[in-house]
């Protein structure tokens, strides 16, 4: 049997090491935050972030953002299989009971099933994905190529802005930063989150960045505003 983890369905893909601020307004997830804050011990206060296939936090309900009592917020088929835990780093409770929280991505997991659980919020049975080993020689060789492609992509995407001045030295951290920053589809981000190792993620990113840079270069060659031709940005 896998671990039981509280999960928060969102329209975004979280990567390890990346910061994710959240505004918690739905009552069942206010309860989740209160339960996590009340937890004692050395274990991190974390919950799973799983991405919705339809990009909306609430897929059922009576119009006020709250599903009927006893009804799970989502069904298993509406979630991607791979998620990442979010560790609470800062919690601010507002006067009306809502929360502003700051979380950081921590570890990846695979959703096995939606768990039958007495808690009002969603829980799932999950298996932890193996932690990535320190980047190997292949990843070290790929990282400069991917970074160069990322700089080219950013320069084409936002020519008036400053391209990255500081980037992480660690290939794994770099791969997660690029995955979270580039304007990719949700499916593409999920593919990167599920990559078995840093080298595989970097290879995929190199392919995606070269594709996007090629598209942007062709669009810029056409004498019309870029905003008229650019494809819709991913909701993440």
Automatic annotation (TrEMBL):
SUPFAM superfamilies: PUA domain-like. Pfam families: LON_substr_bdg (PF02190). Gene3D superfamilies: 1.20.58.1480, LON domain-like. It comes from Couchioplanes caeruleus. The lineage of its organism: Bacteria, Bacillati, Actinomycetota, Actinomycetes, Micromonosporales. It comes from the Bacteria. InterPro entries: Lon_prtase_N (IPR003111), Lon_prtase_N_sf (IPR046336), PUA-like_sf (IPR015947). Coiled coil: none annotated. Residues 2-213 form the Lon N-terminal domain. This is Lon N-terminal domain-containing protein.
């Amino acid at each position: 049997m896998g671990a039981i983890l509280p999960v928060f369905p969102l329209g975004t893909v979280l990567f390890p090491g990346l910061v994710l601020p959240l505004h918690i307004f739905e009552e069942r997830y206010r309860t989740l935050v209160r339960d996590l804050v009340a937890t004692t011990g050395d274990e991190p206060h974390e919950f799973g972030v799983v991405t919705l296939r339809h990009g909306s936090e609430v897929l059922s309900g009576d119009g006020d953002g709250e599903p009927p009592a006893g009804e799970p917020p989502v069904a298993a088929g509406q979630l991607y299989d791979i998620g990442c835990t979010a560790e609470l780093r800062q919690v601010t409770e507002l006067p009306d009971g809502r929360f502003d929280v700051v979380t950081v991505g921590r570890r990846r997991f695979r959703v096995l099933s939606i768990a039958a659980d007495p808690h009002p919020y969603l829980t799932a049975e999950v298996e932890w994905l193996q932690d990535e080993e320190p980047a190997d020689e292949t990843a070290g060789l790929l990282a400069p190529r991917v970074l160069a492609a990322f700089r080219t992509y950013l320069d084409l995407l936002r020519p008036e802005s400053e391209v990255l001045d500081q980037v992480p030295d660690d290939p794994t951290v770099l791969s997660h930063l690029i995955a979270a920053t580039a304007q990719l589809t949700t499916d593409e981000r999920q593919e990167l989150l599920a990559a078995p190792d840093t080298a595989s993620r970097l290879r995929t990113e190199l392919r995606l960045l070269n594709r996007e840079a090629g598209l942007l270069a062709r669009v810029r060659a056409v004498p019309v505003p870029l905003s008229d031709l650019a494809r819709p940005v991913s909701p993440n």
